[in-house]
Specification:
This protein is α+β, with helices and mostly antiparallel strands. The protein has one domain: Transcriptional regulator MraZ domain (Chemotaxis protein chec), CATH 3.40.1550. The protein has six helices and eight strands. It has helices at about 5, 30-35, 60-70, 75-85, 105-110, 130-155, and strands spanning about 15, 25, 40-45, 55, 90-95, 100, 115-120, 125-130. Helix 3 packs antiparallel against helix 4. It starts with a helix and ends in a 5-residue tail after the last helix.
């Protein structure tokens, strides 16, 4: 991976305050990673696994679209993914201060109240309730360390 592509990844975590109108500042590093695309905003959808929001740029949606396009037309799996991903994604536009308005139904789904944790996941990022996310991260730190240790001790890290 060349250094330029690393700069376009979503890395690290940052917690920002959500105001009464549902506005929250997207971290500057994440906004810079989005500058490679033509859209001034983020694509956001409700996570399928946990109460969280999954977000990214145009390539984030393009990756999902490519996965869906590989499925047979009219198949149950294709229908499900089109409905829950393509049918529910929202483009959240940046204001002049780099903030987006998270729709009320998205905030309720992800249990977002006063603070949102933006967590980089490489080609995408998550928006999570900061309190529950920080607790989950602390609770799973040992398991993550063991997963890495198991990977490297099995020779898979070479």
């Amino acid at each position: 991976m060349d250094p330029r592509s690393i700069e376009a990844l979503f890395l690290g975590s940052q917690t920002n305050r959500i105001d009464a109108k549902g506005r929250v500042a997207v971290p500057a590093d994440f906004r810079r990673a989005l500058e490679t695309g033509p859209t001034r905003g983020i694509y956001c959808l409700k996570g399928l696994y946990l109460p969280r929001l999954e977000c990214g740029g145009g390539d984030f949606i393009a990756n999902y679209l490519a996965e869906i396009e590989d499925l047979k037309h009219f198949s149950d799996n294709r229908e499900l993914l089109e409905e829950h991903i393509l049918g529910s994604v929202r483009l959240l536009a940046f204001d002049s201060e780099g903030r987006v308005v998270i729709p009320e139904d998205f905030r309720q789904y992800a249990n977002l109240k006063e603070r949102a944790l933006f967590q980089g996941r490489g080609k995408r990022f998550l928006i999570l309730d900061s309190e529950s996310a920080e607790k989950r991260i602390a609770d799973t730190r040992d398991a993550a360390r063991e997963a890495l240790r198991a990977r490297t001790s099995n020779g898979a890290g070479r």
